Amino acid sequence: MAGLEGALVGAGNPLLDISAVVTKELLDKYGLELGNQILAEDKHLPLYTELEKECAVEYIAGGATQNSIRVAQWMLQVPGATTYFGCVGKDHYADELTKVAAKDGVKALYMVDEAVPTGTCAACIVGGERSLVANLAAANNYKAEHLLKPENWACVEKARVAYSAGFFITVSPDAMMAMAKHCCENDKTYCLNLSAPFICEVPPFKKTLTDLMPYVDYLFGNENEARAFAKSEGWETEDVEEIALRIARFGKASGVRPRTVVITQGADPTVVALQGKLLKFPVTRVPDDKLVDTNGAGDAFVGGFLSQLVCGKDVAECVRAGSFAAGVIVQRGGCTFPDKPYGFAWN
């Protein structure tokens, strides 16, 4: 595991998850759907206070990209193997996030906006499934200038793999494009997640996604996001395998490597499209009685996958690690994990 310091860099929206088991009535009150992720509107803002007052809440370091980076760091067990960029406020929520990152071994380089509170995400859980409502707050204010500071950009130059969740498209397309182009020009690997249907459905976000796509070496998503992408392209298919193959064929800015598209489908097989071929990997099902919280399962899959990608492993090993990590996370509350990835055998 030598030479892995700074190997993986991520940029995204750091949020403190406010996680709670809630009633169906609460979901209905705020118009929330299980399995969905949305950005908070004014009507959702009382939700955060209501959760803290009425429910037994747990505070967990969150934000999709940060989750994946923390999981990759946990899998690698090499201090400082990962670096993370995002914007926080100057408050106790930010202090919590900084503490968690340090404990996990992630090098967190937060931009601090003193005028705005740290972003939060309400994770409303019913029967192990969740509905996420993100109030980006400070996370919404990340600026590419922070990433481009020489001392910060040096971390991007050091990395061999860069990753952002699609959610970051709503915040700093410039930072994403800078990392994507750097990877393309320096034969590095750029990875992106579709993250949520609205990224494909809202025209300005879809345009950024389209602009980034030529630079994307690995694209992640789940079956709902894949179908939303297909719909946004005007494709008349809901077949996840066909959609993955078609996305993989999109043009690339660099001819060095083909695009790999990885679509998870919950307990159904993970679909991977690569070089015109389709691979399917079965998922080891977690028994219902052990399922605690699906929040972060997709992020954990990506984190496990990236932990092997930075080590140069093939796609089968990457998927195996991703499935392992996701299987651990769904048996715990939020995106949390034991001290070490016990039970994972490195090949």
From TrEMBL:
InterPro entries documented for this protein: Adenokinase (IPR001805), Carboh/pur_kinase_PfkB_CS (IPR002173), PfkB_dom (IPR011611), Ribokinase-like (IPR029056)
A GO biological process held by the record: purine ribonucleoside salvage
Annotated Gene Ontology cellular component terms: cytosol; nucleus
Listed cofactors: Mg(2+)
Domain Carbohydrate kinase PfkB: 27-338
Major enzyme class: transferase
Protein name (record): Adenosine kinase
Organism for this UniProt entry: Chlorella vulgaris (Green alga)
